[in-house]
Structure formats: C-alpha cells, structure tokens
Amino acid sequence: MKIKSIALFLGVILCGCFAQASDVTISDVVVRQRWPWSRLVDIDYVMTCDATQRVDVVLTAKDGSETLTLPSNSLAGDLYGVTHGPRRITWDPTKTVYTNSQMLTQFNVTLTTTSVPLYMIVDLTKAAGAEGQITYVSEVDLASGVYGTVETNPVAGVNSMVWTGVTNDVAYATSKLVLRRVTAGTFTMGSPAGEVGRGNNEYQHTVSLTKDFYIGVFEATQKQWHLMMGNWPSLLSNVALRDTRPVEGVNYFTIREDATTIKGADDPAVDWPSNAAVNEGSFMGVLRTKTGIYDFDLPTEAQWEYAYRAGTTAALYSDLNLTNETSDAELDPLGRYKCNGGLLWNSETGKWDTPPWGSAAASNLTAKAGSYLPNAWGIYDMAGNGAEICLDWLSTDLRTLPAIDPVGPVEPVPSNIRRVSRGGAWTGSASTCRAAFRGYHVQDDRSYNNAFRIVRRLP
Fold first, then answer.
1. What would be the CATH architecture of the domain defined by 119-457?
2. Domain ranges for the chain
3. Which residues contact 112 (CB under 8 A, 6 or more apart)?
4. What is the pTM of this model?
C-alpha cells in the first residue's frame, strides 16, 4: 500500500501523483476548499485497484509538521470499503477546533490505503488517541492464531471467518468493545408467507444498504455500561454474574438522550432520523466522547436484520426454520429465550417463574455474552437474550417496495411513541427470536426484557 501527500493553503487546489504499488494506488489528488461561503474542504482522488477489491482510506492532516486532530464526524465520503474509480472525501473544519479564525497556512494531507478489517476492538479504559486504544483485526491476523480460535464457514452456504476466541477472554465483554465489520449489500427483509410465527407487519421487500458499518459482536454489557456511566441500572444485580450479562433496565432515552433520571426525558434537539445527534450525558454521548469515535449509535431496523441474517434467508441465522412458535430445538443452540433457560417451569402451578434476580443462578435469566452459537458473521446473542432497541420509529408494517438505506418513519404515529426493538428476549417465545420479528419499545420504559447493541455507522 502506498501513500499520497499534498500540501496546500486552504482554498488552493493542488494535485499530483506518487509512486504506485502494484495492487492498490491513489493518484490525481486535488484538495480545494469550497467557495463561496463554505468551510468544507473536498479531497478528490482516484483509486486504482482490482475490480473486486475494497480498501479503507486513512486520512492524516497536518499544518506543517503538526498533526491535526480530525474527529470521525468531521470526515465524510469515500473512506471505507472504497472501490476502483474517482472518489471524494469531505472534511468539515466546523466539527473540529480549527475555524476560520485559525488559518492553516501549511495544511497538508496524507492518504493511506489499508485492507478492510474484520473486527475492531476499542479499549474502553483508555482515552481517545491513547496507544492501543483501537485495534483493527484482519483475516490474516485471525488466521495467524494471535487472537485465539477461529472457525471458517460455520453456516452452510455462507463463506466467512468467525473469531470464536472472542468468547474466551472476559475483557472482550467488559473492558473492551468488539465490533464486526459488515459489508454493504442487498437482502430480502421480512418473512415469507407461511413462516412459523410470522406477524402481520413483516411483509417482504428488498433493502439495499450502501454503507459498511460495524456492529457489536455482543449486546452492550453491564460492565461496559458501568465504565461509561458509573452505575448499575439492571435488575440482575448479582455481583458475581452481572459484568458479562447484557445491560437491561435502560431505555432509548438513557441510551441516547437523558441519563440523569430513572425514566429519562425527551430532548427535541435529539431527533432521529432528521439528525444523528445524541446528548453528551447519555450513554452514546459518553461513549463518543470517551473514544473519540462520533459515529457510535444504535442500529437501524434494517441494519439489525441484515446483520442478524448474515447472508442467510431462513427464519433463524443458522439458515433453519422454526417448527414450533413456543419452544423449538432448532433455536436452542442459538439463544436464550423463555424455554431455554430464561424462565423456570413450575410444575406445581403450571406456570413459568422468574428466579430471584439478586441470587440468580448462572443458568437462568439473561445469559452471559457469547453463551450460544454466533451467526455466520461472528455476531452473538441476536436470537434471544434481550430484545434490542433500534433507532427507528415503529411503523405499521415494512411495506413491499424496495428501499435504500431505510431509517424508519420521520415522525411517530400519533399517540404511539414507540421505537422498534428486534430479536427475542429471555422471557419470550421461540417465534420472537426470528430474523423478521418486529417488537417495540416505549422510549421511557426501563423494561428488563430489553437490551441494545452498539453500531458504528461509517460515512
């Protein structure tokens, strides 16, 4: 991989070429500040590579020899999964400490190409920019054995490599955040007629996601919440167990908007899908500031189902279908639900009982992160454990028309202020653990059935 570096005064166009590698090259770089009355800086370049190749581009900016700090949310455009052809990156100085009152007279940029990683590890105990704070893991790294065990093609018909060793180190579910890279693509969302447990709002339609994203291999855990927020909001309070269990007892507001009260509160300025803002004191706000990664958020409903399916088309991510709505042997290896350890059957009363939260045995209630089989992309616990809160307002149904990067309704249905939740919970039946099952979450409801998964949106 080679590097391209260009120096300029802001607003001046410079371009050039550089020594090219045989596999991937960047050339014809042009940097210009938009005019008139715009601070945006466009960095145009040409990527030359094999037609099947995809690479990431790392942009480093300096003013003379001084390296400039460019937070992730100040850059947009062709940075991730870049393919052959003319490309553009846009830098927004207004989202940095550099403004028009601070002239960058020796501004220069360096573009470096890197292979697309499979995993991203964020050390939550380290400050943004600290050595070792972020680690990218490639397929070559995994194959070397440095990160422990791997499995290739765990689901028939889907070519993939899964890092199974992530379950063997408790740090990956507590002090570190591990995310899997998901490649943009097209899939069929919803369930076909006749699928066991199918709901009346699960119509099939084609969805195209045009941007790669990262998604947590585990649901956010109680320890990860504690590291960010300093409290333990979940009902499962057993000190010996709680660290690696999904954080429950939180809601959409405490995750994205207001974490200062038990129920949380709505802030009109935080208004998905019209913007991707979060409040600084919310979990996502603290996570963004702590890590310096301002793209962290909840998944959209489409991102969630795409990640769940991981290239499969059946009801379960094992590419098998259910035969029973309540309890099903095909689901048992994949996730925690009511009939698979979530609740206890009371033969005397003929009812399911909830074990005492504070003294729960490890075999009941929510399961430890990574207790069940992952999907073909190495993502765990999507079929059960916690019903995962998504960004989208709940729509009546998914309709049948094709969609590109859907973000859900612009506004909620009147008198129906609910967000989508996806995936079954430890209290739910087998049918709720299907890929297409659509649940809902009242924004201020701190339900102990709910959980959430962290996504990093890529521009």
1. Alpha-Beta Complex (3.90)
2. 3-115, 119-457
3. 1, 3, 57, 58, 60
4. 0.93
